[in-house]
# Entry
Amino acid sequence: MTADGNGSAFGSRIRKEDARFVRGLGKFVDDVVLPGMLHGAMLRSPMAHARIVSVDVSAALAHPRVKTVITGEMLAERGMAWMPTLSYDQQAVLATDKVRFQGQEVAFVVAEDRYAARDALELIDVEYEPLPAVVDAHQALAPDAPVIRDDRPGQQDNHIFDWESGDAQRVAEVFAEADVVVEQDMLYPRVHPAPLETCGIVADMDPVSGRLTVWSTAQAPHAHRSLYAQLTGIPEHRIRVIANDIGGGFGNKVGVYPGYVCAIVASMITQQPVKWIEDRAENLMSTAFARDYHMRGEIAARSDGTILGLRVRVLADHGAFNATAQPSRYPAGFFGVFTGSYDLQAAHCSVTGVYTNKAPGGVAYSCSFRVTEAVYLVERMVDLLACELDMDPAELRMRNLIRPEQFPYDTATGWRYDSGDYPRALAKLLDMAGYHDLRAEQAAKRERGELMGIGLSFFTEAVGAGPRKHLDMYGFGMADGAELRVHPSGTAVLRVSCMSQGQGHETTFAQLVANELGIGVDEVDVVQGDTDHTPFGVGTYGSRSIAVSGAAAVTVARKVREQARLIAAAMLEADPEDLEWGDGRWYVRGVEGAGHTLAEIARAAHADIDLPDGVDGQLAASTVYNPPNLTFPFGAYLCVVDVDPDTGQVTVRRFVAVDDCGVRINPMIVDGQIHRGLADGIGMALMEHIAFDADGNHLGGSFMDYLLPTALECPSWELGETVTPSPHHPVGAKGIGEAATVGSPAAVVNAVMDALRPCGVRHADMPLTPAAVWRAIQGRALRSDLAIR
Amino acid sequence: MLLPPLRYLRPETPEDAVAMLSDVDGSVVLAGGQTLMNMLKLDLAHPDALVDVHRIDALRGIEHDADGTLVVGAATTYAELARSPEVRRSHPAVAEMAAGLVDRQVRNRGTIGGNCCLNDPTSNYPPLMVALDARFRVLGRDGERRLPASEFFRGTLATAVGRGELLTTIEIPPMPQGSGVAHEHLQVGADSWAIARAVVRLDVADGVVADARAVLGAVYGSPLRLPEVERRLIGQRATPDLAEAADALQDVDVQTADDVHCSAAYRREMAEVQLRRAIRAAVERSVQ
# Structure
């Protein structure tokens, strides 16, 4: 595991963190045990919409092991009953006036052990006056719909925002010229990121120092610290947020939840540490969901298959509080990239957000801010167009893909795609899959009445948010800091602001630094997730770690290497300008093999040589990296399914994925990320769905009801790659964390719809469970006859 | 999601277990715990005491009687059934069902007796036990009772095991020469609950079905035996056309319910599909 500074630290198939994870020695928040630690439990609303008449906690307080019970009223006295959301709305920490979704936080019991805390929940007497619930987003704006957010001054209805992007006039013109226009309503259902580790916190307010220390499952520790400071009034420099190992996040752990705030308040009140760990039902019912986009797409084309324009209308169900995580100026996230990978003349989308009596959220679940919804929309529309024109969907895509010479490409909705060679990726995919043989096999099977489908998806992501000028999260520009210190022995510690939830940052970031400094990957440790020991940044989500923090790490390593040049020059008694870097050394030009390694230079920096003016006796630097643009990873996916015509059950037989995420630093981690995302896509396409009944009761509070894919639903993935380096990232990387989640659902759904073509089925919404597919085959109503999606 | 306060008792013998179950109010049997522990954590069951029988040697093990009857201790795990060469030889359907449980942890902990005593509509074993004419030995204070499967399963989550009683042993008669047993089921995911399940046994002699069992699972109540389907199978030549006997299901009141995965109507349709498939597969498996 060594590196020569010329790229050889890349390509290793290692993961440093696995040594502890595979032995069960990771340290997660629930592993934190402090002396005198108390335990919290949350009382939640059994109703989707109800007025709170009274909350009586006296019996709970009388429980011998209960220390305190926090109510909304108590928080209101401290000005903490409400907290700001990432979308500049307010969310109830504990309900005071009404409950607005089933599972909403009502009271917080603090007890000496977690069993007592749970038992005492049953001793709290809450009187509710039920109110009619708004469950169907389409009913939210009806004139007689109950107003959910009467806490908001002036709010007369359930409308949150209208947002649009693109040129409606120009779209109308190209639609008027088109030979063919295809329309389709489609729903991207409400799904849950469902990390295997639920959310949790240990809050420890030290009454002596006035310092608050928080251990929590935080994808964005620095942002959490800022919010805690704002809420509690504790100065920011006296708050320390520590995220140890995190068991999956996928966007679920970006925001601050009421349980966190309650645990902090409880520690402030009791002056003892307080732990709160959510259970599975709580996680599935109350924490951030994703998607819930009701979309109507229209695509216009010439009869030869040239796509002219795309128009989309979206109704976005944001739940009871607008807590969507996205950059401030983008209430629909990056949905504006819905033009996908195609060279269109015009496009327009309008998005309306509404409140409903469901859990808040709308996070970027394994995608960069609604890119998944955008990709699904365009890839379904292109397939529907192919059907309408009776064209091969691969041929239709190839005809309309943005051509390599058009990059950087400005889309019809104002995005600048940095780089790409789309036709190459699609051609590689078709070749790997044996596309023409598959179509021949399909034709033969159709003759026999068998339902085989081949689905394609070509996606472009917009990740690595992002340039400070355009992008901020809750007022914080999306730049990332990095600090690097090389010790006298030549080993290094890198401190970054992003936070791994299992993505392997400890390895990948060490490889980035090792690559620049010519030291071993084992000689670089990465510190993350502790706000006292890392520079500020807005965290890990939206595939931004490599694109932003990774670039920061490379930049700071190059700064240190330049410091080393000056010190090496002093050691070699040469002019710094005469030095060259290679093979892990600074050497005098022409004298390769001589010169000094970083370890020698580091030792000298701390030794007794005369240092030039302005050079410190150390190798250490810090930086803040502000990306000039997003990065745009892309890929071409193909899915082969067989559908059982008698039951509607879908079997994914093959999945071929060609990804271009720019330069790959650790191919094993890249493959692992793709495997995860592909499984995710199969889950969303075929199984996952947060369902509600007409009263707003949540029907998916366990993994028996909310189904996740396992290895048994997944084929053996067939992966391929092309490499188009990002022109503006210092090592050409683009990010891979979410590509497969973004690209795969459309491929699976397109495959199922392709299989069902002989049955006359044009579209059916996810999840394509056996019952849903069977109903489509039978030509029956496509919406679930039981659950409101 | 936390266990309520409970007494935990661990008897050494079946007789001790029966004594505890009789004497301790609100006591229930804990075997593999694969369902009970979830029910406790979800606040769906409220016993006062758990009588853990899974380490009682007398309740474990796989034997064959002289006549070929398979005698299985009620606390025998799925994993033990799945890997037993004797079971795979004598009663392959019993071993295959255990091997088909996708979760290794469940296979290692879950027991055939627990599965039968729960008699959840989605449970795997009850319809198979009915199809194989299994007998259940139930121990009580006053001695042992021996019940046929038809009397053992009494309804949704209910069996003939009364208060103070313990299922000790399941006896499965030897498979007749030439019989074929098939189990077909439909699930949304490989590790999710069954939407529909059918088990069919055809005893075939000289190419003709001498006796038959057709049983549905994943329906309300107990495993649903289908006498009219069986009547249409018996005496017929064992060919794939026999699947048409499933038409008789049209006249059966198959009770089931809507849930988050599908409607009751879909379950009923799928019950018929699984039954047809099970008949065809049983024909294929029978030795003619």
About this structure: Chain A has a mean pLDDT of 95. The two ends of chain A are 50 Å apart (CA to CA). Chain A has three domains: 18-25+479-625, 32-131+197-247+253-286, 289-465+629-777. DSSP finds 18 helices and 33 strands in chain A.
